[in-house]
Amino acid sequence: MQDEYRTVARVGTHETEINRSRFLCALAPAATEREAQEFVAAVRKEHADATHNCWAYVIGADASVQKASDDGEPGGTAGLPMLQMLLRRDMRYVVTVVTRYYGGVKLGAGGLIRAYGGAVGEALDAVGTRTRRRYRLATVTVDHQRAGKTQNDLRSTGREVRDVRYGEAVTIEIALPDADVAAFRGWLADATAGTAVFELGGEAYGDV
């Protein structure tokens, strides 16, 4: 399982013009393949009058789903270079559509490859990306008397507090990089005089 990946920070569009052809690159985060397909369909509908709406998406932290379409451009000159740009930038859970309005000047295969791949690269720079890292979820259970100080100590040392539940005791859900688990156990024992109960859970990705 990949320790970290990048995705787009938000939905956005960036336009470039090459030899009088307009290239509008739309980008969006997509948690599932269905979300990616729905975004492609929405852009195609918005730009139904365009010459081409080429697309590519990568789903999964390990890039397990990779698909692309040339949408009528010569084979391998649009969708594939778009996909390759996403992979080169370590992008995951992302979909992109490059809409082309033909301007009357043919670009040739090499020109098309550079245009479509370049449109995605420029759009990624313009829209912005964020890095997400794999964390272990864990719970810290303490008595009510120590709960406030423990939460403050967790936050002051940069730990991500995801949830706090109050019952007979207080359960604090946190996220830790795998490499920090052993050191955290020691820190927690010192901070709570050995009274806290620490349990490891599953895994999740969070923003760095």
Question: What integer is the average pLDDT?
Answer: 93
- How many separate helices? 5
Instruction: Round the Cα radius of gyration to an integer and report it.
Output: 23 Å
Q: Strand portion, in percent?
A: 35-45%
The helix-and-strand class reads alpha+beta
The dominant shape is elongated
Distance between the terminal alpha carbons, to the nearest Å? 17 Å
- Poorly predicted regions are none
Q: What oligomeric state do these chains adopt?
A: single chain
Explained architecture:
With 208 residues, the chain is of the alpha+beta class. It is 33% helix and 39% strand. The chain is built from five helices and ten strands; from the N terminus they run E-E-E-H-E-E-H-E-H-E-H-E-E-H-E. Strands 1, 7, 8, 9 and 10 form a five-stranded antiparallel β-sheet that branches. Strands 2-3-6-4-5 form a five-stranded antiparallel β-sheet, with helices on both faces. A hairpin with a 3-residue loop joins strand 8 (160-166) and strand 9 (170-176). It is elongated and about 75 Å long. The mean pLDDT is 93.
Outline the secondary-structure elements:
Blueprint: E1 4-8, E2 12-18, E3 21-29, H1 33-46, E4 52-59, E5 65-69, H2 79-88, E6 94-101, H3 108-127, E7 129-142, H4 144-156, E8 160-166, E9 170-176, H5 181-191, E10 197-207
Antiparallel strand pairs: 1-7, 2-3, 3-6, 4-5, 4-6, 7-9, 7-10, 8-9
Search tags:
208 residues; alpha+beta; five-stranded antiparallel sheet; elongated
Q: Can you summarize this structure?
A:
This protein has five helices and ten strands; from the N terminus they run E-E-E-H-E-E-H-E-H-E-H-E-E-H-E.
